[in-house]
Amino acid sequence: MDILRFITAGSVDDGKSTLIGRLLYDSKSIMIDHLEAIEKQTKNREDGEIDLALLTDGLRAEREQGITIDVAYKYFATPKRKFIIADAPGHIQYTRNMVTGASNSELIIILVDARHGVIEQTRRHSIIASLLNIPHVVVAVNKMDLVDYSQEVYHSIVGSYAELAAQLGLREVTYIPISALNGDNIVDPSQLLPWYKGHTLLHFLENVSIANDINLSKSRFPVQYVIRPQTEDLHDYRGYAGKIVSGIYQVGDEITVLPSGLTTTISAIELGGKPVQNAFAPQSVIIHLADDVDVSRGDMLVKSSEKPQVEQTLEVHLCWMDAKPLSVGNKYLFQINSTRVRSVIKSVEYKLNVNTLDKEFSPEKVGLNDIVRATIKTAQPIAFDSYQTLRVNGGGILIDETSNVTVGACMIQAVEN
């Protein structure tokens, strides 16, 4: 059973918490004792209904007090698929939290209040989805009950958002009219929306294809661990363990070790402790090479015919996540997959307005939650792809060397040769 990771985004009071609560409640993914506690908290409501928003409000309250939680994750499953929901705050001062939650998501649900339509926060969330190259976008037009389930209101919002999607280059956008409070079109089709012939939200989440999101044409195998038992039985054993992040590997393939550029061939592949002839993303395997070449953690094994770029100068979109401002000349550890090297910020070209996409060139200050275009110089060459073409090998982080805290999220841009 595969796993769909998705994030929800919406303006204040768009019903994000209620939507997550409705998905958990209607899919019967709530523990009985938790449900009983929620029922007690809402027993005095006049309508007698359970306040589903309480299922996530507890986590949100902790997060807003700055206690422990930056992004809250909820887990549930149906007979068809498992789900991980990243619940990040939607305010502009929490841009870093949304970037964190969205970076590993295959899908984003953007809630739009049917009464207000596409607003500034809708645009900002869509811009971040575009920057992070999230493959699937669902626009859930919520609170349809407050506009009398109007088909005209819904189609007006769809038209407005379609213009925005075209401007941002969002590829796959699906529109669903819902009422999270009443459960319309969440799990079961709503009888109050007879003009809507599409899928319910849960049906779409269960059936959206994510297999095509895995790139099988560019082979990327970051080495996580070198296995050398050096026992009497396994005296000559040398295997390179890791996860294939993209592509397909076969015994006999010609391999280039990056960044050194040494070449050899694959002599064997182990999957689950058993030899196999081929393996593919996202499997975790052990690869054996025909020659005794120098390979260590952080190196990357790629097919010689499918090489990525190898550079020391990186152009990135950088989301700054630290309260201490970013300054040109600052030094950090840069990590991409299992590769970690020292680096320095060489320049900041512009700051991006995440509401309008306007660029502020040569900004005087880069602070918490700002997104900028920056140049990073690494101490050693890095094997990478542009984030737009291969997310799994185009996203990196900056780490403070003294505190070991992640201070920036990087989306590497294509480098002109």
List the helices and strands and how they pair.
Blueprint: E1 3-9, H1 16-26, H2 32-41, H3 54-64, E2 72-77, E3 82-87, H4 95-102, E4 107-113, H5 120-131, E5 136-142, H6 151-168, E6 172-177, H7 201-207, E7 221-222, E8 225-227, E9 239-243, E10 248-250, E11 254-258, E12 262-271, E13 274-276, E14 278-280, E15 284-289, E16 300-303, E17 309-320, E18 331-336, E19 339-352, E20 359-361, E21 371-384, E22 395-399, E23 406-412
Parallel strand pairs: 1-3, 1-4, 4-5, 5-6
Antiparallel strand pairs: 2-3, 7-16, 8-9, 9-15, 10-14, 11-12, 11-16, 12-13, 12-15, 17-21, 17-23, 18-19, 18-22, 19-20, 19-21, 22-23
Helix pairs in contact: 1-3
Name the CATH architecture of the largest domain. Answer: 3-Layer(aba) Sandwich
The fourth-level CATH homologous superfamily of the largest domain is P-loop containing nucleotide triphosphate hydrolases
Number of domains: 3
Radius of gyration of CA atoms, rounded to a whole number: 24 Å
Task: Estimate the mean pLDDT confidence.
Answer: 87
Helix count, per DSSP?
7
- Low-pLDDT residue spans: 58-69
CATH topology of the largest domain: the name is Rossmann fold
Distance between the termini: 42 Å
Extended strand count: 23
Spell out the key features of this protein.
417 residues; alpha+beta; Rossmann fold; Elongation Factor Tu (Ef-tu), domain 3; 3 domains; 8-stranded antiparallel β-sheet; 6-stranded mixed β-sheet; 7 helices; 23 strands; 18% helix
